[in-house]
Amino acid sequence: ITYSLPPAPTVTTNDATNVNNNSATLNSTVNPNGNSTTVLYRYGTSNVSCSSLSSVTSSINIGSGVIDVSPNLRNIATLSASTTYYFCAVGTNAGGTTFGNVLNFTTLP
User: Fold this and answer.
1) Positive or negative CA dihedral for 66, 51, 95, 41?
2) What integer best gives the mean pLDDT of the chain?
3) Taking 80 as the threshold, does the pLDDT of residue 3 lie above it?
4) Which tens digits make up the pLDDT trace of 73-93?
5) Of residues 88, 105, 84, 108, the one with CA closest to residue 16
6) Which stretches does DSSP call E strand in the chain?
7) What are phi and psi of 82, to 5 degrees?
């Protein structure tokens, strides 16, 4: 008998919204591909790969559907003014973990 792993989620990091001098809202589009999936965001001030970004938000459970789920909002605060932050979405389910593309935003002065 051959067992195949369920598919990992499909993850797209979307542009940050509500950016001000000390906070921003992170957004993504994630397809659970039929498996119970959680989404979180990694962020930091270094332009590195998604898995290397130092800060991590709490996760959001988006269910186990087979359609894209968006915007998966997560607000991050206590940011520094006039600073560029890099961030990405991360989706995890029984099939594995998918790292989204890394985007950036700059907080207001």
Assistant:
1) negative
2) 96
3) no
4) 999 999 999 999 999 999 999
5) 105
6) 10-17, 24-31, 37-44, 55-56, 60-63, 74-76, 84-93, 96-99, 103-106
7) 55, 40
Q: Could you say which DSSP state residue 34 is in? A: T
| Cβ-Cβ contacts under 8 Å for 8 (sequence gap 6 or more) | 33, 91, 93, 95, 96, 97, 98
Provide the token pair at 90. 């991360």
Residue type, 37: T
Question: Count of residues for the chain?
Answer: 109
| C-alpha closest to that of 85 among 14, 19, 12 | 19
Amino acid at 100: G
Token pair listed for 3: 């067992």
| Token pair recorded at residue 9 | 């989620």
